[in-house]
Structure formats: structure tokens, C-alpha cells
Amino acid sequence: MMNRREALRVLGAGAGLELLGIITPDSLFALGQRVHRDHDHGPLPATRQNEIIGIAAERIIPAGDTPGATDANVGAFIERILSGWYSTAERERMMAGLADLDSRSVAAHGRAFVQCSEEQQKALLVAFDDEVTALREARGRGGSGSANPDQHWFSMFKYLTVWGYFTSEAAARETLRDFPLPGRYDGCAPYAPAVPGH
Questions:
Q1: Higher pLDDT, residue 144 or 110
Q2: DSSP-assigned states of every residue in 105-136
Q3: Which of 16, 40, 58, 192 has its CA 20 to 30 Å from the CA of residue 137?
Q4: How far is 171 from 3, CA to CA, in rounded Å?
């Protein structure tokens, strides 16, 4: 079974962010844990943007036999990375993508993304994922001038969702069964036999 650090190594090249793309997997793991730990003060305010982020993340990693993105507080993680780590241009790209998601939802279903059925929400997200796939394929064929798929807002969003999930305590305990060891093992400790009668 893949552990959290291995999952983050897989993510390393797909950050969509110059800064996060150069951080080592172990540092990325530690940063993710720190964002969860230092900012775990409950849910974020119920703004339209935060609702979209939370629901979209849950559609990417839904709850089932294991916790989903909501259980892992991924929406709050994404918002905190957006506000604390993204450049203005990166943040604007993400906000424009979320607005586009909402606009496409209204065009396709006559209602905002958060008001759509789960199946409609999934279909909208799959359409964006298909766009990223098409960009990757075009780039793989050596298409000159092809857009960088890692810079697509949805590629960035998926990356943050998976990063936030795998560095959460909920995923560590329930999904990956990655429990911290309760104490130190010292294989070189001197052996002290039990004293009879004590």
C-alpha cells in the first residue's frame, strides 16, 4: 500500500506552482501537515468560493469506506494554501477557474455548481479533467506552443486536493492506516535481565 510520502512523490512534478514544484517530497509532506495542524480551527466562512472548493474536493475524493475530502478538511487546506502560498497570478487563475466552473454549471443546468446534483457536479469536473488530459496529450505529441497542463486551474486544484488529503490526520489513520509509532525502538539498548523476586 502506498504511504503518504510516496503519494506526495507522485505529486511532485504536478504542482502547477513553481515554488511547490521544487520542494522535496519530505518537505512537501511536512508543509502539508503543518498547514493542517497550524490552521485547523474549524470550517471556513460559508462564502460561495469556499462552498465550491469544498464540494469539488469532495467529488474528487468522496467519502465511502474511508474518509472523503470533507472529513480531511481539504477545503480549508486549499483555501489556506491559496491565500498563503499562491502568487497573485496563481490565485487569480484559480479564482477564474472556479468562476468558470460556476458559469458552465449555470449554462448546462440552469443553477450554480453547489446547487447541482452530485452527478451533475461530477460531470462538470470530468469535463475540466478532460481538458487537462487533452493538454497533456498535445504536449506529449510535441505540439509547439501547447499550454502547460500543470498550469490549468483544474490540474492545480486536483493537486491541492490530493496533497491536502494525504497530509491530513483523517487520511493517515483511516485511509492509509499510517499510524505513528507509539515510542522509540532502540535496538542497541543493553539487556537487563529481570531480578528474581522483584
A1: 110
A2: HHHHHSS-GGGS-HHHHHHHHHHHHHHHHHHH
A3: 58
A4: 10
